[in-house]
Amino acid sequence: MSFYSEEMDETDEKSLIWALSKVLSKMSDTDLSKNEKLFLFSLGFSLYPFFNGNKISFDIDYLSSKTTAYIYLINSTKDNINYLIEIYDILGEKIAIGNILKALAEKRIKTFDYTKDALKIFYKEYLTEGEKAHVISLLNDVAKNLLSNSRTIDNIRKNIEELVKFFNLMCDMTDEMFRYDEKIASALISINKYAQKKAFFNSLIDVINQLQSTKFKTPERRLEFIQNINDILTKESEDFREALAKTIIK
Is 190:235 a contact under the CB 8 Å cutoff? Predict the structure, then answer.
């Protein structure tokens, strides 16, 4: 997939497409089931516009000079489109235009997106429980690539905002099943180097507590995210537990 946003700096490695491609480029056919491959490769094709405000240009020459992950997706453009088409074939009547229009007219659904909504149906109804769990594990690997080395509280806030954005979107795509696992806790602890660990975790607690519900799809989603992050960090870090305890005491 050869997408490039005009808003993306040459050194920017924060886009979902970069994070996803870095994971998928390391996967072999034996690492993924057919359903997992269809979902993940179609995910990369369909969600890049969402993360870049639909401002997309195609610049293969530009991207060809960049990371091997980008080159991998450039060479997979046709395959990515075919994966999504194959999902359409599998879903068949479930997403037939006549049925969708009828559902809209009867107000059983408010909108229908032929990329995101089709993938949501495919994940929910066609992946086995094992495949769903494996996909969520791989998406945690993707989320790790969205994190940066943090030197200031602004970097910490940026990391959390990236995780919020990804959490919102992946919960939607995986029938509310997506949660961060211990890999994210380890990444937050090891990748972020803000002063000393206690200073980092104190700042991290502040950022989490300051999150506004407007960043989330629903207030419930906000609570789910905060609980998820708290759970995995509390399990992995004594410094985080100490910082959290001080917050509770206040």
Answer: no
